[in-house]
Write a structure and sequence with these properties.
- The structure is a single chain.
- It is built from twelve helices and four strands; from the N terminus they run H-H-H-H-H-H-H-H-H-E-H-H-E-E-E-H.
- By secondary structure, it is of the alpha+beta class.
- The mean pLDDT is about 90.
- It has two domains: about 140 residues, no CATH class; about 120 residues, 3-Layer(aba) Sandwich (Glutaredoxin).
- The longest helix is centred in the last third of the chain and has 18 residues.
- Helix 2 packs across helix 7, helix 5 packs across helix 7 and helix 11 packs parallel to helix 12.
- Strands 2-1-3-4 form a four-stranded mixed beta sheet.
- Heme C binds next to helix 2 and helix 5.
């Protein structure tokens, strides 16, 4: 059995069926690709799946859980990949929550996956399993803030229950560049902003601030609720720890308001 699998993996690496394509065609209607872990936690632990309304675990969740739960997480990768492939093959044909690798608290929000018996080939299973196994979150999501425009921020803030953070900046402002190159790239800062805020960057050399918002210097950070009401205005560039404190205070003050 293992030998067969190994052979077909070899075959795959030579002729390369695309696992991502299989995912897009057969799995993506239920399994979303990537959602950062902090947001998944918030969705399941605090909000009973009402934040994201997920129908199935995301691919980053699956990839992580499979690598943790199947075979030896510290052992040989090729062997573990074969074990994971065998598990997924079995699960696709005979789905049963009793066999699940996912956390029971999370599974309770999902139906059991429908069986793929007769609807997927062995090659497709192997390709998609390998792709899930080696799945890596998109880099830009991990260490970079995803800025959106103000209009989109209003919609997202409402839908996700987040605070809008407008960074007022200009290309000639030395402290803006410092802030952007250092503080706004710190993983802790990126993580906190990504989980609780919707960042908007307004470059004053090209854009105007929405709603006649006031600013006195660059950079300035303006925090707004999802109706566009100003919660706090914070002028200046900040080092990591001070900026984290500011973010936590803003988050806290919004919490008090509700
Ligand atoms: C119709 C919706 C749907 C489709 C399509 C679907 N899944 Fe699922 N899948 C689910 C749900 C719901 C769960 C969680 C409940 C469960 O484990 O049965 C799940 C769970 C899983 C699990 C985890 C099993 C575990 O241990 O919890 C794997 C692996 C998986 N799916 C792989 C796939 C792959 C690969 C595809 C595409 C070939 C796919 N799924 C297509 C709905 C779907």
């Amino acid at each position: 059995m293992r030998y067969m699998l190994l052979l077909s993996l070899l075959y795959l690496s030579m002729f390369g069926m695309d696992g991502e394509e299989v995912y897009n065609k057969k799995c993506s209607s239920c399994h979303q690709l990537y959602i950062p872990v902090e947001i998944l936690m918030k969705n399941f632990m605090d909000q009973n799946n009402r934040l994201l309304h997920l129908k199935a675990p995301t691919v980053n969740q699956l990839s992580y859980r499979l690598k943790q739960q199947i075979g030896d997480p510290k052992g040989d990768k090729d062997i573990q990949l074969m074990e994971v492939t065998a598990f997924i093959q079995n699960y696709l044909l005979y789905p049963d929550k009793q066999k699940s690798v996912c956390l029971p608290e999370i599974l309770s929000y999902f139906d059991t996956m429908p069986s793929f018996k007769g609807k997927i080939s062995d090659e497709e299973i192997e390709a998609v399993s390998e792709w899930i196994y080696f799945y890596l979150p998109p880099k830009k999501e991990v260490n970079k803030l995803q800025f959106v425009d103000y209009k989109k921020a209003l919609i997202l803030a409402k839908r996700l229950g987040k605070i809008i953070m407008i960074e007022v900046t200009s290309p000639t402002c030395h402290y803006c560049i410092k802030m952007e190159k250092r503080t706004l790239k710190e993983p802790d800062v990126v993580a906190l902003i990504s989980s609780d805020f919707i960042p908007v960057r307004v470059d004053l050399s090209r854009q105007k601030l929405p709603n006649n918002l006031k600013w006195s210097m660059t950079p300035t950070f303006i925090f707004l609720d999802s109706d566009g009401n100003v919660l706090k205005t914070v002028p200046g560039a900040w080092m990591k720890d001070d900026f984290l404190t500011i973010l936590r205070e803003v988050k806290q003050s919004k919490g008090d308001e509700i």
